[in-house]
Amino acid sequence: MKSPTPGESVAKGFAFSSIFWLIIGLVVGLYLALEMFLPQLNFAPWIAFGRLRVVHTNGLAFGFGLGGIFACSYYMLEKLTRKELVFPKLAKFHLYLFNVAILLAAISLFAGMNTSKEYAELEWPLDVVVVIMWVIFAVNVFATLIKRREKQMYISLWYILAMTVTVAILYIVNNLEVPVNLFKSYSAYAGVNDANVQWWYGHNAVGFVFTVPILAMFYYFFPKSIGIPIYSHRLSIVSFWSLVFAYLWTGAHHLMLTPLPEWIQTVGLAFSIFLIAPSWGSVINGYYTLRGNWDKMRTNYLTKFFILGITFYGLQTIQGPTQALRSLTSFFHYTDWVVGHVHMGTMGWVTMTIMASFYYLIPKLAGRELYSEKLANQSFWLVLIGQLLYTVTMWIAGIMQGAMWKATNPDGSLTYSFVNVVAAMYPYWKIRFVGGVVYLAGILVFLYNMVKTASSGSQAA
Ligand code: HEM
Ligand code: HEM
Fold first, then answer.
1. Whether pTM exceeds 0.90
2. What is the pLDDT of residues 9-29, one digit of tens each?
3. What is the Cα 100 distance to its own chain's centre?
4. How far is the CA of 365 from the centre of ligand 2 (A)?
5. Tens of pLDDT, residues 237-289
6. Which residue of 111, 169, 223, 411 sits 20 to 30 Å from the alpha carbon of 453, by its own alpha carbon?
7. What are the pocket residues of ligand 2 if the criterion is a CB atom closer than 6 Å to any ligand atom?
8. What domains, with CATH codes, occur in the chain?
9. 396: closest CA among 350, 348, 429?
């Protein structure tokens, strides 16, 4: 076997780090799910719901999500530019720094250090580490792109570039803060401005972490896995520019019906509806790539992952814009419906696409055949069933919650107290826990398959 390129060896490190943080984040997620109907489990501050929730979200969005994104980005960067990474030592340092940063983030959040801005909870010393880490990544991305040997920039490179630039700007602007001591700071913004900047960042964390780089993976690994080029390069470019243009205006849909000026809410809403077009541009491109070859859903196990992944992305990008409408948000906001939306995106679209990319990538990096296709198929069904059980249950729970909160008696008083509604949610929260266990079982099967492939699968021909 030929010795790995710098991009390949660092990709392997990031891939296994990503799976490691995935398992940790999911175990914490399951504990959170239990705490919802067994409140006595909140028996110490370190494991109280409020602290664990941020360990779960940060561990999965940044440990699992970003770890997978870095793994695939380094790999795609080298392949698509036909150039090895310009700064291999920097990439290696990036891998170590990433794991140290996630570990310190988890410890500080467990300890209750929290800026209270969602998805930007880390205190300022860790923000500095995150910015250094991002600059290190950006240096390799730009240098390798500048020195590329392939003139044409394939669509995945555009998506990687957009993520690199945008996340840097979003993170720095939203995290401007005044430190009080090493462990505490206050936001540089106040009141409604703070909320506006926060959700401009928050929504684009979803957009430029859970969407843009995942699309980069989809556009690269899907055609590679099935051996068919993407249906339309032009459609992919048009979708790309309209998506990155529209995303940055939509953050205010998280603040509908709040003191934020109404015109800003309307701008957020209008761009959210507009987003359906570029999102579905990619969905249609994916479906058309398979035209005449739909039997691959049966014969090529990776096709199932990618097609189901992009289908959940399609559903997510219809559900998102509609739930931003004022009439619907007034019903669904604060309910479990939104938790269902989040987990269709993360457990469906993001997980399925990262898993599929790893199923393609890890055998290649290890120079071995996949250990077991049968296990890969089993992991697919477990993850799919677990996710559906979770999300569908949360949508039903959300509708019930919204309806109960708003129900009134003929004299205008509320029909149900808040505690009545919490009690009515218990059966749904129990089913959510079962869905999470099934999903985790799928992830453990995936982990086993990957470890076996890397350590003892048969050598690739
Ligand atoms: C066209 C694209 C999308 C639009 C317009 C959209 C819209 C929305 C809206 C309006 C909310 C707020 C609901 C509320 O609090 O009442 C929301 C929440 C959320 N969405 Fe989406 N969504 C889109 C795609 C996605 C995708 C692809 C993901 C990927 C996982 C995602 C993940 C999330 C998350 C994590 C939240 C929760 C944020 C929080 O309150 O902590 N969304 N989305
Ligand atoms: C075993 C699977 C999982 C379980 C049991 C689980 C459980 C939970 C629970 C109980 C919450 C809190 C909901 C609330 O506050 O009412 C939550 C929130 C969240 N989870 Fe998960 N989760 C799982 C998988 C994932 C994955 C794979 C990701 C990301 C890759 C993820 C990302 C999030 C995010 C972003 C939120 C915040 C949602 C919001 O603010 O609306 N979860 N999860």
1. yes
2. 999 999 999 999 999 999 999
3. 20
4. 31
5. 999 999 999 999 999 999 999 999 999 999 999 999 999 999 999 999 999 99
6. 223
7. 26, 29-30, 32-33, 36, 53, 56-57, 60-61, 64-65, 338-339, 342-343, 346-347, 350-351, 436, 439-440
8. 6-456 (1.20.210.10)
9. 429
